[in-house]
């Protein structure tokens, strides 16, 4: 990996400084110090090889909703948690959502939230994402994150008993309505009525 070696004044400590974009999140690295390096004072070589491995955490640690999740409500919250502090000025600017949706951002520390301010269309597939993620103090834009989800279909009646124009012979036959998902009872009661239309 490209970088530079910086020695202290006594030449008994060296620091490797990565060049360019620096270390890549989510990547394993191995440091090697091979035998043969010589002491400046006694000219004696290092008699062994030293090897150490280290791992940088991945940029993204979690995101909600999980990819492909369905039947979300009208105001789903999109959340991304990162392993590094964010540049909260630059990162939200790379956000897009299709179909378009208005919303607000909450970016603090290592977490970014997008909350719709108007209801999303029902029964619709959405694609959202950050084209880039900017980490605080890092001038290099890092790979973004995407969300794929779809909202729940509109509320609908899935079955109705008795069936239309069905002749019933019981004076107390119950009328049963089934919906495609749970309903707020008070809301349904305010919009439901049974009325006589005359006839034989």
How would you describe this structure to a colleague?
With 200 residues, the protein is mainly beta. It has one helix spanning 185-190; strands at residues 3-7, 14-18, 28-33, 50-55, 60-64, 78-82, 95-98, 103-108, 111-116, 125-133, 142-150, 157-161, 176-179. Strand 10 (125-133) and strand 11 (142-150) form a beta hairpin. The mean pLDDT is 89.
Task: Give the N-terminus to C-terminus distance in angstroms.
Answer: 90 Å
What gyration radius follows from the Cα positions, in whole Å? 31 Å
Structural class: mainly beta
**Helix count, per DSSP?**
1
What characteristic shape results from the CA principal axes? rod-shaped
- Tell me, rounded to a whole number, the average pLDDT: 89
Low-confidence stretches: none
Overview in brief:
3% of the residues lie in helices and 38% in strands. The protein is mostly beta strands.
What keyword list fits this structure?
single chain; 200 residues; mainly beta; four-stranded antiparallel β-sheet; 13 strands; rod-shaped
Describe the protein's topology.
Blueprint: E1 3-7, E2 14-18, E3 28-33, E4 50-55, E5 60-64, E6 78-82, E7 95-98, E8 103-108, E9 111-116, E10 125-133, E11 142-150, E12 157-161, E13 176-179, H1 185-190
Antiparallel strand pairs: 1-2, 3-4, 5-6, 6-9, 7-10, 8-9, 10-11, 12-13
